[in-house]
């Protein structure tokens, strides 16, 4: 039996200080897995869905929670700093700079430049940070993938374009993906 060697990256992991040193150039800068991710401004379909979802959630969010659209930093316990499209968190958890506690709900809207990250690395980062609810809207369907943290995992509910999904977690709301476009 041969020896097993674990490969270690020789690249230094970037930190919040590196992220904070990025220029204010109108792009979204996030720190994920020790790398800085720069995303272009989203397109019309993406922003249309974000706006519709914001309106829907804003009418449902209870007074002890706050709904914010991007850009606003969420500093996860792992050291990752992400900028979700929409976040809902306890008002008492916010600082003037960021949200240093896991949000109650994160909503990401897929775009060509973020699809793989939103369904891969970000999903894992939110799950590992203990974010109880992670919703992903795909404007191309349109459809919704609603993840709810259960025993450290993210089982999901798939909601088709014309289906209406009603939930009481994290607060009562109903979503029909086709109405989000």
Instruction: Determine Rg (CA atoms, Å).
Output: 17 Å
User: Structural class of the secondary elements?
Assistant: alpha+beta
Largest sheet: 6 strands, mixed
The CATH topology? tt1808, chain A
Taken from the alpha-carbon principal axes, the silhouette is globular
Question: CATH top level?
Answer: Alpha Beta
Estimate the strand proportion.
Answer: 25-35%
User: Number of helix segments?
Assistant: 4
Give the spatial strand order of the biggest sheet.
3-6-7-8-9-10
Global mean pLDDT: 92
Q: Specify the helix fraction band.
A: 10-25%
Number of structural domains: 1
Task: Tell me what the structure shows.
Strand 9 and strand 10 form a beta hairpin. The protein is built from 4 helices and 12 strands; from the N terminus they run αββαβββββααβββββ. With 181 residues, the chain is an alpha+beta fold. The protein is globular, with a radius of gyration of 17 Å. Helices cover 19% and strands 28% of the residues. The chain has a single domain, classed as tt1808, chain A.
Task: Sum up the structure in keywords.
12 strands, 19% helix, single chain, 4 helices, alpha+beta, 181 residues, tt1808, chain A, disordered N terminus, globular, 28% strand, two-stranded antiparallel ribbon
